[in-house]
Amino acid sequence: MLALQGCATRDHSLHDIERRLAADEPAQALESLERQSKGWSRRDKVLYLLNRAMLLRIRGDFAASNAAFTKAKRRINELYGVSVSEQAGSVIINDRTRSYAGEEFEQVLLHVYMALNFLEMRQYDSARVEALQIDLKLRQFSKRIAKKKYTEDAFARYLAGLIYEQHAEWSDAMIAYRKAYEAYREYRQVYDMRMPGALQKDLLRLTQRLGLDQEYRRYQDEFGFGYVSEPASSPAPGQLIVLLHNGLAPVKREQAVILPAPGTHTFVKVALPYYQSRSPLANGVRMKVGERVIPLDLVEDVNAIAIRNLEVKLPAIQARALARAGIRAAVVEGLRRDDQWLLSLLAELGGIAMEHADTRSWITLPYDIYMGRVSLAPGEYTVRLEVLDRANAVLAEHRFQDVTIHAQQMTFLSHHWVVPRHLLFESGR
């Protein structure tokens, strides 16, 4: 019953956070998280810290956000060697008995958002540390995780390339862009997502800069265009990179069935998780700077990555659920053979009550991420970000006032726009 109460509390909290974010009330969403999380277990500390960090980021408190991300990172590292007792508990009780360390893609996005926080504070050296952490984390995954599972992240690689380029580390930037290119080619097969046009231009521009003529021609043939260098100017232009973090990531739900265990007179429950998408209204984004209109590219489909990640893990989750069901059925049958009918009934009902899928996830992540890049002369600008629907009508607009562009520097701006379709219909708008 305590487990059921904890689950209900968490679900209520997350729904309230979702509604607060849709109403553009990140401070109130954070208050809701703090209030509701008081009843959470220590096993959920990483979950709490990830959501707290994101809400602080959405509120614009990048330093406090990174402080929470750092605590989450430290706790994840502590959980790297999972205890034997927690592993045993997941087989006997349920998967929620294990401490939550985040899905692999969530662990990488932790570093991505730490890097973005640093970039928006113009702390470029600290952002570079996170770029190195991204590479290290993905290398670890590629060594210990089966190829069909999540082992690479295209947007994380692309962002790392931008960070290296900001430091004029052209060779490292080129390596990161190549890895992003390969990852986006895989994304096309797995997630039906095209390669961002901005990355295509960056690959052409950097191969031309580094004198990689053969590689340049290969990209030129594949993309169907070449790179046209901008005319030299004094002072040198800066770069504006704008990101829209659109909607909210899918939430995990439980689907369960109670059925008779084969060869027994015992009923058991099997519960499995699934992702429920929270489809956003936005279907495109563009930014306007003066007379220039720049469309933003879709650079990360968090919704698709999360669903795919669970799909490939589901056989192992099913195996643990069936193993628990077998153990419980054997215990009940053993008690009945010993004429312990009351205890067998309690064991049967207790087993059904205890069986729950692990529905924990980082629910304040976006549904997807858009990014645009443009060269601008040094100075101050007003940047308008327009969120578009399927008919290219403007759903919402956000203005960045007094944006300062520095010569030969990148300026990063982010906006989180959270209006899931189902909440819009609930409110009757």
Could you describe the 3D structure shown?
This protein has 429 residues and is an alpha+beta fold. 53% of the residues lie in helices and 19% in strands. It has 14 helices and 10 strands. The protein has helices at 2-22, 26-36, 45-59, 62-78, 84-92, 104-120, 124-144, 154-166, 170-191, 197-209, 213-223, 302-337, 341-354, 421-427; strands spanning 238-246, 251-260, 267-276, 284-289, 292-295, 297-300, 368-376, 379-388, 394-405, 410-417. The strands form 3 sheets. A 4-stranded mixed β-sheet has the order 6-7-1-10. Strands 5-4-8-9 form a 4-stranded antiparallel β-sheet, with no helix packed on it. It starts with a helix and ends with a helix. Residues 1-9 and 423-429 have low confidence and may be disordered.
List descriptors.
14 helices; elongated; alpha+beta; four-stranded antiparallel β-sheet; disordered N terminus; disordered C terminus; four-stranded mixed β-sheet
Describe the protein's topology.
Layout lengths: L1 H21 L3 H11 L8 H15 L2 H17 L5 H9 L11 H17 L3 H21 L9 H13 L3 H22 L5 H13 L3 H11 L14 E9 L4 E10 L6 E10 L7 E6 L2 E4 L1 E4 L1 H36 L3 H14 L13 E9 L2 E10 L5 E12 L4 E8 L3 H7 L2
Parallel strand pairs: 1-10
Antiparallel strand pairs: 1-7, 2-3, 4-5, 4-8, 6-7, 8-9
